[in-house]
Each structure stands twice: as C-alpha cells, then as structure tokens.
C-alpha cells in the first residue's frame, strides 16, 4: 500500500488537536472592570459612614456660610474662610437640592472624591494601565483622601481639579494644541478658584510646558491663569488680615508639620 501523502502519526496529532488537549484561557479581569470595582469601592467607603461623625468646627463655618443668601455668603467669605469662593458657590447650590444636613453637605465632597479615582487612573494610564490602576487604588483607600471626601470643606474639590489639570497637562505635553492648552488653563483656573494652593501645581506645569513648547506658545493660557490669580489677590489679602485661620499652622514647627503629614499618609 502506498503511503504517499500520508502524515506521520505525530504530525497528525499536532495538526488536529482533540477536545481533551485544548486548554482554556484563564479568565482575567480587564483594567476597565478593575477600575469600575475600585470606583464602586471608593463610593461605598465614602457614603456608608457619611453621617457617623458629628459636624466639627471647620465644617460648621461652611454650614453657617451656605445658610446665608447667595450675596450674603460671598460678602462674609473674607471674614470666615481662607479660600476662594468656588467651592462655597457649588456647595451652596448643592444643598439647595439635597438639604443642609450632614449628608447633604458632605455628599458633595463624597461624589467629588469618588470621581477622583477614575481621573487618577487616566493620569497614571499615560505610563501604563498597571500604574493607572495603582493610582486609582491608592485614591480609593488612602486615609487622607477618604477623610477629605467626607468633609464639608474644599479640599476634595481641589484634589479633583488638580488631578484633571495634571491629566490635561500630560495631554498637552504629548500632543500640543491650542485646545489642549486651553483645557489645561481652564481647569487650572478652577483649581485656583477652589484653593490658593493650586498655584504650587500650576507653576511647575507652566514651567515645563514653556521649556518644551516655548514661552510664546504658552503665554496666552498661562497668562489667563495668572490674571485670575491677580484678581483673587485682594480677597486673599483680606482673608489673611481678617480670618486668622492659619495661625495654628504658623505656630507649629516645621518638624511637627512634617511628622503630621507622614502620619496622615
């Protein structure tokens, strides 16, 4: 019998795998699925115990402010706070819908803190999906992030705007365009309108953009942020003179502040 065209037994076995030799791929979660789980975890942690702790001193200052009429709130801002007005304007509108109880006030920060998780994932993902997931995980369970997300103060909103501004800055560096630079400047302005400390992120970002793209290209977006900062300067000076809310920080030694920061992290 001729064997022309026949394959040796091992070749047949290799070319026609039986059902028993097929190995199923292990099931793995995608980065998107993990991110959704982390975001849901962050929301659960923040909302589950939102009203457990009583309102404390700084939160009571926020409550007193937003219980006023809109113009009254703005006029008393320099006497009771040491931050720009954006957070108070937003939370004033928020409590008109959800009420002025502990949950009504704090839920704004809880929502903002939850939204920070996917934003930090997108920022970290510019390096790799794994870095993005680690950033999202840290944002979800970090004690300081958790604390600020349950507090009726402006810090959670500052973190969110700073994270979005950083993401916009990354994109402007990667593929510069007028639109991306305008987005970076706009979010930087919102961050600065939330807290003066946003300047500490804006300045190095502006410097790096100027080094990469040239000062002429970034002059307009950077100048817009600087103009807003100058417009806020009279309010900052007034708050500095009237509020006296930072004296406890000034009286503390640098060593004790560094130790407190490490403890919070």
Tell me the number of strands.
Answer: 0
Write the element-wise H/E pattern from the N-terminal end onward. Answer: HHHHHHHHHHHHHHH
| Structure classification | mainly alpha
Helix content: over 70%
Average pLDDT, all residues:
86
Strand content: under 5%
Radius of gyration, in angstroms, nearest whole number: 26 Å
The main pleated sheet reads as: none
Number of helices: 15
In whole angstroms, the N-to-C terminal distance is 81 Å
Question: Which segments are poorly predicted (pLDDT under 50) over 5 or more consecutive residues?
Answer: 1-17
Rough shape? globular
Write up what this structure looks like.
With 265 residues, the chain is mainly α. It contains 15 helices and no strands. The chain is globular. Mean pLDDT is 86; it is low at 1-17.
Topology:
Elements: H1 9-15, H2 31-48, H3 57-66, H4 70-75, H5 77-80, H6 86-98, H7 102-125, H8 129-141, H9 143-148, H10 155-174, H11 178-194, H12 199-213, H13 215-242, H14 247-251, H15 254-264
Helix pairs in contact: 2-7, 2-8, 6-7, 7-8, 7-10, 10-11, 10-12, 11-13, 12-13
Question: Concise description?
Answer:
The chain contains 15 helices and no strands.
Key traits:
265 residues; mainly alpha; 74% helix; disordered N terminus
């Amino acid at each position: 019998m001729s064997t022309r065209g026949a394959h040796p037994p091992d070749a047949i076995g290799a070319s026609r795998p039986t059902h028993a030799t097929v190995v199923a791929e292990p099931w793995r979660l995608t980065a998107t699925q993990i991110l959704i789980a982390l975001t849901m975890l962050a929301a659960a942690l923040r909302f589950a115990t939102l009203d457990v702790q009583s309102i404390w001193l700084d939160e009571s200052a926020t409550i007193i402010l937003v219980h006023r009429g809109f113009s009254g709130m703005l006029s008393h801002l320099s006497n009771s706070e040491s931050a720009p007005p954006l957070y108070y304007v937003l939370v004033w509108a928020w409590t008109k819908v959800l009420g002025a109880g502990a949950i009504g006030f704090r839920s704004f920060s809880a929502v903002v803190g939850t939204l920070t998780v996917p934003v930090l994932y997108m920022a970290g993902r510019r390096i790799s999906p794994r870095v993005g997931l680690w950033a999202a995980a840290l944002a979800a369970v970090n004690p300081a992030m958790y604390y600020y997300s349950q507090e009726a103060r402006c810090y959670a909103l500052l973190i969110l705007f700073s994270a979005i501004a950083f993401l916009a800055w990354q994109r402007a560096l990667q593929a510069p365009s007028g639109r991306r630079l305008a987005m970076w400047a706009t979010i930087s302005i919102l961050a600065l309108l939330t807290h003066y400390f946003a300047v500490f992120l804006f300045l190095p970002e502006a410097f790096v953009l100027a080094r990469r793209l040239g000062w002429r290209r970034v002059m307009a977006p950077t100048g817009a942020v600087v103009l807003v900062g100058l417009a806020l300067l009279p309010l900052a000076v007034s708050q500095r003179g009237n509020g006296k809310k930072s004296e406890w920080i000034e009286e503390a030694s640098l060593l004790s502040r560094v130790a407190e920061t490490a403890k919070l992290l």
